């Protein structure tokens, strides 16, 4: 039997390094995907979308209930009579009237969800408020995550909660957020 030569040892060392490195890289990449789809990263993506007024991106991060709400809101905006508004809550009435005022369009012309989202956010000045916060103290209840919003400057609790729902990834419950403001 021949003794191992220097090249064979280097070859074994390379093979051993590859055998250790490949699972490590795979595990790191796998963990990266898990961390990427977390409530905190969704919150940061939402803040980023709001900071640059990318309403399409903000809408994409929003949950299905928010999308359905915007569609109903559009029906209320297009309604001919103000009688339909009487059945709505004060919050919904405010948004309908604000959207009608902001849109300055023919009442029979439909607004798309992106336009409504923009009007909605601007009406409540959510962007300027949300950009000054960070999410902390996250609690999970099945497919729902709730995080408390803290001031980025003073690190004090704002008293507001940010709710996310897991539906093919974490999505922002913008309705709960709007009603909190």
What does this structure look like?
The chain has 181 residues and is an alpha+beta fold. 60% of the residues lie in helices and 17% in strands. It has helices at 6-36, 39-51, 55-61, 64-78, 83-86, 90-103, 113-124, 126-130, 174-180, and strands at residues 133-141, 144-151, 157-166, 170-172. Strands 1-2-3-4 form a four-stranded antiparallel β-sheet, with helices on both faces. Strand 1 and strand 2 form a beta hairpin. Helix 3 (55-61) crosses helix 7 and helix 6 (90-103) packs across helix 7. The N and C termini lie far apart (80 Å). Mean pLDDT is 77; it is low at 23-36.
- State the strand order across the main sheet: 1-2-3-4
Structural class: alpha+beta
Number of strands: 4
The global form is globular
Q: Work out the radius of gyration.
A: 25 Å
Topology as a string of helices (H) and strands (E): HHHHHHHHEEEEH
Estimated share of beta-strand residues:
15-25%
Q: Give the N-terminus to C-terminus distance in angstroms.
A: 80 Å
Total helical elements: 9
Q: Residue share in helices?
A: 55-70%
What does the average pLDDT come to? Answer: 77
Q: Biggest sheet, open or closed, and with what strands and sense?
A: 4 strands, antiparallel
Low-confidence blocks of residues = 23-36
Short précis:
This protein is an alpha+beta fold and 181 residues long. It is 60% helix and 17% strand.
